[in-house]
C-alpha cells in the first residue's frame, strides 16, 4: 500500500521553496504523478486531499483536467468536507463546454433538496457559477422553490442563482416573478442586496418586467431612506456609512426604472436630493455613492435643480486629491456637457486647471471637455489656455489639440484677423503635428480674407525668417509670398507697422527654403511655384527667377524637375501667356462632397484657373499651342491629348513634352502613351475641351446602344454604358458602373484599362474609391476611347480592391462590345 500523501499545507510550503521555474515544475510533475497513481487505485480515503492539492496546482497555472471525474465522485459523497472540495473543483475545472458537467445535474438536484442548508448552499453556488442552459432548465424549479423559503441564508444564494438561470435561459424569467413579490420586504441585507441584483437583471432583459416593477419605486425609495437615516449599525457600517453596497445597487435599479418615465422619476427626486446632500464625502465609500447618485440623476427625467446639484458634486470631485475620482468626474461631465452646458460651464476654471495635471489620462479628458465648453462668448479666453497647453503638452496630445483648436476657431472666430493669428500660432508651435488638410484650409481662409492679405503675408514672412522646422507653416508662407509678394515689398500693411523688404530678400528666403535640409519635397514644390509666381509680381528680379527655375530643371527630385521644366517652357515658348496663367487666385469656395469638406483650389502648385474661367482668345490661335498647354498643366486626369481630325499641317511642338516624359502614364491606367511620332496632326480643339463647344455633347442615336456586363465575379459587377461624341464620331464615351452585392464594403477600389495601340484611351477620375455593400450605391467612372480606324473595340481591364481584410486583384478581357459603340 502507498504511503499517505502529503497535506496541502506541506505541498504549498515545498513549492514555495523552489528557487527556479524548472525546480517548481519538477516538484509539480512529481506530485501530479503521485496523485494520478492514487486516483487509479480508487483511494477514497485521500481523494479529498488530492483534489485540493490539484486545485492549488490549477491556480498556479498547471494542467489539472485529469481530476474532473474525481470531483464528481466527491460531490456524490455523503461527507460535507468531500462535497465542499468536489463542488469547488467542479467550479474551477469544469464548464459547459465539457459534457462531463451534465453528469452533475442529478447530484445538484439531490443536494438542492438536502436537509442541511450548507449543502444546499454549495449546490446553489455551483449552479450559479457554471450551470449550462440544459442544467438551468432542469433545475430552475428547485431554485424557484428555495427563493420562496423563509431561510435568509438560502434565499440570498437562490436569488443569485436565479440571476444566472435568467442569463442562460431568458424565457424562464416569468417563473421567478411570483417569488420576487416579497423579496423587498426582507429585513436581511444580504437577501435585499441579491434581490435588487435579480430585479435589475430582469428589468434590463425585459421591457415587460421593467413596466411591471415600476410600481416598486416607492418601496425602493423607502429602503434607501431607511439606510441613510438609520443610526450606526456595526454589522453594516463601512467608514461611517450604512451598507454602501446595498445603496449603490438600489441607486442603479432606480436609474433603470426612472429612465424615460416621468412618474417614477418624480417619485425618486426627493430621495436622490437627500442622498446627494447627506452623504459624507471625506471617505471613498461616500464618493462611490455620490457618483452613482449623479449617474442616476443624469439618466432619469430629473428636475433641473437636481441636475445642477449633480454637476456641482462632479465639480467638487475635480478638486479631490484622488486621480481616479478626478478622472471619473471629467468623464461624467463630458457625457453631460451637451444637455447641461451652462451648469458645466460654471466649473470651467477647475476643468482648465486639470490641463496642468501630471496624469496623462486626466489631461486628455480635460482637453476633450475644454473643447466641448468652447463657445462664442469664451472663445478668446479658452483659446489662450488651450494654446498654452499646446506649447507645453506631450507630443501625443499635440495632433488632437491642434485639430480641436482649428475646428473651434473656424466655428467661433470673433474676427478673421484673430482666426488667422490663432492658426498661425498653432502652426508655429506644433506645425509638424497638424493634419494634412490644415495647409489648404488656412490657404483658403487667407485667400477669402481680402483685406488681410498684406498683414498675413508680412506675419508669415517674419514667422519663417531663419526657421524652416515647421513644414506646414513654411508651405503656407511660401504660397502667400508667391501670391501676395508685391504687397509685402510695397509695405502696404495697415494692421501693424510695415517692414521694409526688397525683392531680393524675398527671393533669398524662398531659395533658402529650396536648399534647406529640413524642407520636404512638397515644401520645395511650394517654394519653386512661389518663385515662379513672383516673376509676374516683381519687376527687377525676373532674370534671377529665370536662373533659379532653369537650375532646378536638372533636379534629382522628379517632381521638382518637372515643375521647373514646365515653368521654363512658360518663360520661353509661352511668355505671352505667363501673366494670365500666374495671375492671383480667385476667392475659393468650400464644396460638400460625400467625404469630408474639400476645398476647390490647387494650393498654387499648378494654376488651371485661367483655363477654366477665361474664354479662349478671339484671335486665331494655333491649336498645337493649346495642346501643348494641356500637356504642360497635365498631371491628374489628362492623358496625352487625343486629336479629332487630321490635316496636312504637321504637329510642330505637340510632342516635345511627351518626349520628355517618355512612357509615364498620367492616369494610372495601363494604356501606353503614344510617342511623338504617333501624335497626329491637329486642326480642332481636342475632345477634352468638348464641353466648351456650343454643339450638344453626345449623339441622340447613342441612346440605342445596349449596355453590357463587362465583369461579374465575387459579388463585384461592372457594367458599361455607351455614348458617342457629337463633336468627334471617332470618340466613344464609356461610363462604367461598379456595384457590390456582398455584405461588406469594397475599399480602395481602382479600375484600370488598356486598349490596343490603334486606339487611344483616357480614363477620368472615379466618383469614389468605396463600392458600398448590398448594392446600396455604385462607383461611376468615365472612359473616352478614340477609334479613328473604326476597328472592333477590345479592352483588357484590371481591378484592385480590399475586401474582408484582404487585397484582391483580377484581370479580365472585354470583347463583347456592341457594334454600335465602335462602327
Automatic annotation (TrEMBL):
It is a peripheral membrane protein. The keyword Transport applies. One of its GO terms (biological process) is Golgi to lysosome transport. One of its GO terms (cellular component) is recycling endosome. The lineage of its organism: Eukaryota, Metazoa, Chordata, Craniata, Vertebrata. Keywords: Coated pit, Cytoplasm, Cytoplasmic vesicle, Golgi apparatus, Membrane, Protein transport, Transport. It comes from the Eukaryota. Belongs to the adaptor complexes large subunit family. Residues 598-627 are annotated as: Disordered. It is found in: Cytoplasm, Perinuclear region; Cytoplasmic vesicle, Clathrin-coated vesicle membrane; Golgi apparatus; Membrane, Clathrin-coated pit. Residues 703-818 form the GAE domain. This is AP-1 complex subunit gamma. One of its GO terms (molecular function) is kinesin binding. InterPro entries: Adaptor_Complx_Large_Subunit, AP1_complex_gsu, ARM-like, ARM-type_fold, Clathrin/coatomer_adapt-like_N, Clathrin_a/b/g-adaptin_app_Ig, Clathrin_app_Ig-like_sf, GAE_dom. Pfam families: Adaptin_N, Alpha_adaptinC2. PANTHER family: ADAPTIN, ALPHA/GAMMA/EPSILON. Subunit of clathrin-associated adaptor protein complex 1 that plays a role in protein sorting in the late-Golgi/trans-Golgi network (TGN) and/or endosomes. The AP complexes mediate both the recruitment of clathrin to membranes and the recognition of sorting signals within the cytosolic tails of transmembrane cargo molecules.
